[in-house]
Amino acid sequence: MVIILVAGASALGGGLVGGFAVYSTLKGETPVTIVTSIPTFAQPIETNNQSLQVSSTDIETAITSAVEKVGPTVVTVRSVVPGQMSFFGTTPDQEVSGSGVIISPEGYILTNNHVVENTSNLSIILAVGTELSAKVVNTDLFADLAVLKAEGKMPAVATLGNSDTLKPGQTVIAIGSPLGDFKNTVTVGVISATGRALDTGSGYQMEDMIQTDAAINQGNSGGPLVNLAGEVVGINTLVVRGQGYGSAIAEGLGFAVPSNTVRIIAEQIIKKGYFARPYLGVQWQEITPSIAFRYNLPVEWGAYVSQVYANSPARQGGIQPKDIITRIGDKTLGENMSFVNALFSYQSGEKITIEVVRAEQKMELSVTLGETVTQP
Description:
Strand content: 35-45%
CATH superfamily of the largest domain: Trypsin-like serine proteases
Shape: globular
Number of strands: 24
Distance between the termini: 99 Å
CATH architecture of the largest domain: Beta Barrel
Low-confidence stretches: 1-7, 20-48
CATH topology of the largest domain: Thrombin, subunit H
Helix content: 10-25%
Number of helices: 7
CATH class of the largest domain: Mainly Beta
């Protein structure tokens, strides 16, 4: 009976309210308004007493603003690889391309060393399509960086950010000219990791690299990796798709040189015309456990000295042919520390201790490192 009475009263009340609203409308009066709140994606959604803000507008706005800021500073780098003599005659010249970014109003531009290495007829194409002649100021092979100088008015200048503050998961933007035709292509991803090391296969590793899943294709090399503040935090360098024949194919493994490394190298090249790496003055052969076993060597890891150059820091410090270098300063050579990377941990002119094994006896020698310069 109670339920029936409550239901009847509710129905009667609803009818009276509805009738009053109709009557008020007919009389020209403002009816009673009943508002129902409907949550939207811009409002917080309550989940287990926690507020979750769901909005993509801010991120999209930051991306477009960053692209608008950096886009005019991105250039396409074009050059020609001269034809080579072969068994079938001279091969034709080959046009190659990459990307770059303007870092000064005087026309200095950053790109990769491999984009301009052994090329001629260098030029850059601005985002608006204007082509300008350019030349290589100098390069650093081991960081795969090159500084170019273009003639003409620069439309804008990029700002180098602080790559030390990057964190995995942070949104980043890659801008470049894939295949040389699709100028100022924008791809978006995240910082996958920092501090990566990549084996170049040339006796040294590229260290402290930024890993990102932002799409980097052929032609993107030398272009900027940008944060949401519109700052260049890296120079895109390469993509890893597999580790060799028969290995699994990987996607989203792009790598960039950190902007803090870029800044040090570029500033010295612009100021001095070159970037100096420390010089020891030896010809060496890497020792690994398999090589040590084969030749019955006293150490598993190290660098076998086959030649010591005249008047070199090594000669002056007492290093001799047949010595095995096992430690440079406080860097012990091993699986994760190559000879070149250990040496490049120090500066030209720095006095360090080098440990060698000579006739199965360990020795410590004091050496003052010299300076080596990469010629453009």
